[in-house]
Amino acid sequence: MASVATLSHVYPLGSRVNERGHLEIGGCDVVELAERFGTPAYVVAEDDLRDRARAFVAAFRAAGAEDFEVVFASKAFPATPVLRLFAQEGLGCDVASAGELHLALRAGFDPAKLVMHGNARDDAELRAALDARVGHIVIDNEGDVERLERLCAGAQARQAVLIRVTPAVAGDTHEKISTGQADSKFGVGLADAPALIERVRAVGGLELRGLHFHIGSQLHSPEPFRAAIAAIAQLGEFPVYDLGGGLGVAYTDDQRPLAIEEYVGALVSAAREQLGPGRRLLCEPGRALVANGCVTLYRVIGVKHNISTWVSVDGGMSDNLRPMLYGSLYQADIASRLGGGTRVHIAGKHCESGDVLIRDAMLEDPRPGDVLVTPVTGGYGYAMANNYNGVPRAPVIFASGGQARVVVRRETLEDLHARDV
Hints:
This protein is of the alpha/beta class. It has helices spanning 30-37, 46-62, 80-88, 98-106, 123-132, 142-151, 193-201, 223-232, 260-275, 287-290, 322-326; strands at residues 16-17, 23-25, 28-29, 41-45, 68-73, 92-95, 114-116, 136-139, 159-166, 188-189, 206-212, 240-242, 280-283, 294-305, 309-313, 333-334, 342-347, 356-363, 371-375, 396-400, 403-408. Strands 4, 14, 15, 16, 17, 18, 19, 20 and 21 form a nine-stranded mixed beta sheet that branches.
């Protein structure tokens, strides 16, 4: 039987192997959760999310930041119960569409703690942000200024805005989640930023509060962040700097990302050195808050021995698109027999040859009916879920203190045609 010591660090905080040899998340036996709630299912260790939120806040305080806000990048896990949890923890929220704005308000966020992003927002989305009186709207381009100038005409209160700058710093990450390079769909380049700054300052309905950058996701070194801060420091002094997010997380046993304290410490020290004291610093973690706090449960449907051994499960690219979209790596375990001895490919149920969740996974004697668990699915699993092949989307289960509850129900077949007219 596996021991507690063998459990990988990629699982949620507080996870363990219980006396039956089963994986426990949030004090709940995941084999029992699969029986109770069905599969696939996203299981979230509620305390893990709260602990990480508190760790970010504590890290800023420990680093000596006098004025800061931790802002959850809601695109990572845009489920109302997750958003409500972070609102309860006092965080702000980053939204990039009218839909995410709606969810954040419904979850109870103070509108003043919301930051509205996006490179292609139409009048309706910007109007929704203005009507809600969000804390900051991030200006991406000249077209945003023109739209906001028109929409703010005659308004009594001025809207606080930030300007997104691409600092020509590319992090060491996948090209599809790199955003800080010079030629990016997001923001304005360093050479063009001064003109946009002056243009925004000339609009009476807008109050330019500062600058924003985001250089990419899944970054494992502080150096790109330091370089980006140094780059935007050339553009003058502002009261507010939004330093984006991007802290990497561990998806597999061999990955050892920066600790939250190390990452935040690097941001604060670089900001103090390059931007000067007394600045308000915003930080936008998404994946780093939610990824490791969630696992996905599947049921093994079949085991097939071709040239390779293929383990087929009852989910796949409808509940975790990242392996197909980015080639992202994951690992897995049989929830009742942790530790691996057989090399297999884990295949999803969808009619695509590319629907493979994990290649060369190591599983302990996989059999039909087993509960299979993939950790680190809180970042963009639920967010990118879809109905390919007419598969209803999976539920979200919160687990804490040995108690589990459904916070987002499983879709039904009727939901698939509920919008038909």
